[in-house]
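so my prof wants the structure for this chain in the tokens format not the other one, which i didnt know existed until like an hour ago. anyway here's the sequence
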Amino acid sequence: MVKSSPNKKLISLKRQPLVLLIFSSISFLLILFRLIFLQLLNYESFRKMSDENRIRLIASQPIRGRILDKNGYVLADSRVKYSLIIKPQTVNKRNWEKHKLSLSDLLNLDINLIQKKYFDGLKNQKLLVTLIDDLTVDQLIKFKENESNLLSFEIATQLIRNYPFQSVAAHVIGYTQPITELEYKFLSKKGYKLNDLIGRTGIEYVYEDFIRGEWGGEMVEVNSLGKFQRSLGVKPSIQGNDIELTIDMNLQLVAEEVLKDKKAGAIIVMDPRDGAIRAMASKPTFDLNFFSKDFKPEKEYNKLFNSPEKPLFNRALNAYDPGSVWKIVTALAGLESGKFPIDTKLETKPCITYGSQCFREHNDLGFGVIGYEDALRVSSNTFFYQVGYGVGVDEIYKVSKKLGFNSLSGIEISEQENIGLVASSKWAQDGRGWGEPGRTPWVPEDIASMSIGQFVVQVTPMQIARAYASIANGGYLVTPHLAKKDREYLSDKRRTKIDIDPKYIQLVKSGLRKVVESGTGVAINYGVSNLPPVSGKTGTAEDGEGGLDHAWFVCFTPSEKSELLVVAFAQNTPGGGSVHALPMAREILKVWNEKE
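here's what i got, hopefully its the right format
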């Protein structure tokens, strides 16, 4: 057996403190690095986690901003819903039995139900439990009169969106709905709460960030078991901003009224100088307060979302065959092309053949030899067939683009807007939107239809309003708008000078004045006294989808330095624009004239 030498034992003993020192140093360094990681590098993260474990927020809903018309009438505000609540963990147990019995007797509530909700709240460590969701006025008064004997209970308020005029301007104002769980995943980063309200359509949607406000609430401290310890303070919610619209409620109400006897249709009232919308109505409409109900009856839901009448559809921004109100486009195309100058005179006939079809004059006789002004005055079809055929499809298309057709108008609620259709030779060559390229060529019949606004032309009442506004204001294409924004809309940014010779615009304007003086729109003056000079155009259009005819009437007043423009549209209402659409516009002019 080999024995260790005394020297080796001595060396081993000397190394032990060194090993211990190295081990202790490494351990100390590891602990130090960990502390640095926890206390310095990740301090904020861990502090936040700690706070979230011990701090709870009882949220306080913000008051959503109001929507007002130009005169201050409230179109949308918030109604307070009162609920009876308890905070189970803060209830004084010595007084609970007495208070519970008093509440049961006062409001005729089942005492066992009150007790059950209280116990459930304690068991599940809830900070707040609702006993009655929506108190009646009578219940609220009774509670407030006896509040000193009911200290265990509280009144909580919840804000519900309220629309005082119900269905008036519904498509403009829009509505709110609770956000979905899917939306909450990304909207929570912007301060939204689960089941928070968010604007879905109209002004409510477009100006959501401006009018929604910010949540507040009470911060409370809880222990590791989730039990209430103390209140840490209250942060008031921040009310959203009010938004003032250009809508004039006096004109909006009459616009809604004149549509009541129509199956469907739309009215647009606009200031042609800057595009401010004074009224926009669409029929059928709907009650905005439906969306504020907690419970939505199936019958009401189906009537709104599954009805063939499509009440949610904004017809002021949907596209239809314009008929004769389109003739100003064909007239300007003839003038701009140089092929049909200002002094052009054409012979109108009972009908003119294009392709395999004879296209008739609406009186089946013709109007003799006439020029542009008289062609607009009597709304001659065969005059405009000749002009349209002479200049061709692409010249009409080019002028229509200058007038704002085949594009969005720029109005804020563009999510409801259709760009419509204005045909071109390229559109036909590319398949007309439904066929194979090269298999659906342009044919002579197309140009005749296009010349008077039929079949290959689909435009919105809003697009018609912009085009006629450019005639009324002397050649500026305006941006229609609903929010009041000082004088921004008179700037070059929002008013574009159109590239059409002013003398051609003036010729068309003179023709539109004659329409009302002695032509198809003369009835606008019936029963109205002291009305400034009016210019306008009637229109009757076949429905390209096979329904009954549409009726149109557009007018602006005063004829010079115009201040008001009206587009009246009655969908599938046969009988002519002068019979059905013109009287609607006349009622609006009456109210405006009396007010002015």
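also thought this was worth mentioning. The chain is about 35% helix and 20% strand.
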